Amino acid sequence: MSKDCIKIADDYTGYALSNFCVPRHYEEDLENVLIPWGLIQDRTERLARDIFQDIRDEPLTALCVLKGGYRFYTDLLDKLTTLNRFHASVSVQLHVDFIRLKSYENDDSTGDIRVIGGDNLSNLRGHNVLVVEDIIDTGRTMSRLLAILQKYEPKSVKVASLLVKRRPDSTGYRPDYCGFEVPDKFVVGYALDYNEYFRDLNHICVINDTGKAKYKIQQNSH
Ligand code: HPA
Ligand code: MG
After folding, report:
1. Do you find a cis peptide bond into 214, omega within 30 degrees of 0?
2. Which residue lies with its CA nearest to atom 5 of ligand 1?
3. For residues 5 and 165, is the Cβ–Cβ distance under 8 A?
4. What is the pLDDT of residue 211?
5. Is 10 a catalytic residue?
6. Distance CA 54, CA 52 (A)
7. What average pLDDT does range 139-159 have in this prediction?
8. Could you tell me which of 50, 61, 129, 210 has the fewest CB atoms within 10 Å of its CB?
9. Sign of CA dihedral 211, 33, 178, 118
10. CA-to-CA distance for 25 and 125, rounded, in angstroms?
11. pLDDT for residue 111
12. Which ligand number lies closest to the CA of residue 69?
């Protein structure tokens, strides 16, 4: 069952950078703080509780989609293991695995994807799988990943995504567990990157034009 998401409105301006601690090296590159780290933690705690209550007493294989999902994944699993410690009568045994997705073509939104890394996916047969992702953009990547995973005949597959972007070209895909629905802006931090930068930022922030220009991939001039 798809649960409610915290919806962040299009005209929401977030917090000024000066209200929070942001690394000196990114101060000029960000528009605002959209979701402070503390709020991510509080929301993740609730998602962990929802997952725990839904799965109760069955083992779960938590599959992290790298690299963007790694911080959400570790915080979510920390909170699930805390629930396991605090509940005497129910518990969810956790298995961990990590994958990366590569697109066959350059263009992520049209190309097919391929799963790299991780254990042999045949290990998923008969398991309850929870895919943990940082952001659902158009929804195409996730639909393709789910189609791939289904071939390995897991017992069930659910998806937890910290963010879902409101995009005009969305396929309409909704994850089972969603942290925040965000405006169609490029967000970075908390492991979400722009060309591999900003993963070392705690808060989820909107990148500005200075940041986009500074960390743009340089085209070869010859
Ligand atoms: N930020 C980082 N990675 C992304 C985004 C975003 O806004 N959308 C899709 N991948
Ligand atoms: Mg991702």
Report:
1. no
2. 186
3. no
4. 97
5. no
6. 6
7. 96
8. 210
9. positive
10. 45
11. 67
12. 2
